[in-house]
Amino acid sequence: xxxKEFDLDRFEKRVVASPGLCxxxxxxxxxxxxxxEHVIPYALGHNTLxxxxxxxxxxxxxxxxxEQEVLKKQLGTFRLQVDAPSRTKRKERPINVELxxxxxxDRSAFVxxxxxxxxxxxxxxxxxxxxxxxxPRLFRGDADTGDDHGRPWSFIDxxxxxxxxxxxxAETGAHNVAMKIGEVKRSHFLRFLAKTAHAFAVAELGxxxxxPWLTDIVLERDDDMTKYVGGTFPTTDxxxxxxxxxxxxxxxxxxxxxxxxxxxxxxxxxxxxxTVGRENENTAARIAAMIDGYD
Length: 295
Ligand SMILES: [Zn+2]
Prior knowledge:
Structural class: alpha+beta
Radius of gyration: 21 Å
Distance between the termini: 15 Å
Strand content: 25-35%
Bound molecules: zinc ion
Largest sheet: 6 strands, antiparallel
Number of helices: 7
Helix content: 25-40%
Number of strands: 14
């Protein structure tokens, strides 16, 4: 699979021309009925990949509900800490992070609430909350094995976190202190991955470049995300510089079209693979054209 990397910190901007229809519901609309789609959401990548006039307003409204939850609640603090793009004016952005603490016993069971404390952004440990998944069920013969729930995954800057935990332990006299880290709303995050992968594949391969499968999931008409969305080995052809914050690539796997996504690989984050559809008579030529375009 050819890797397409987006170096979000250098704010490279790529614009893909409007397909003249909504890439989610396929309704053909005049340009005033369509909005620009930020394939990598603005909050993660400025205007890194903009698919012009490619979403109708009703579809954009459905997507915004879960995408905003992911970007604000799941990734909000992390984005502030790494100074990710935000439409909120810099002086109105929070400068502190609230971290809640609890006392736990030797088996990590809850004992008592120790309240939360506020830390300046630069003094708080960097925490990234994602979700780790097995391979998509489609890669495993579509077996409904019931083991596709996955589990939360977090990166925590431990040296900083330990110092803070020691401080809270000293202040409260608690024996074991744990820091509560943000929760991931799994269904929203998986749907967000599906939406990002679908939009990226259409931007790269064009309408008609493959037979798409995920539009019902993107538009919340189907909840069987783990059939298509799962984990993969974080493999790349070559070492990636740490400043590359989002890795995305699209390619064929047998007769399927799959998108690989990894956010903040430098933190050892899980990689995802999303099977966006089946190859059709156009796919091979479109993939070849895409790869030519990279060089
Ligand atoms: Zn639409």
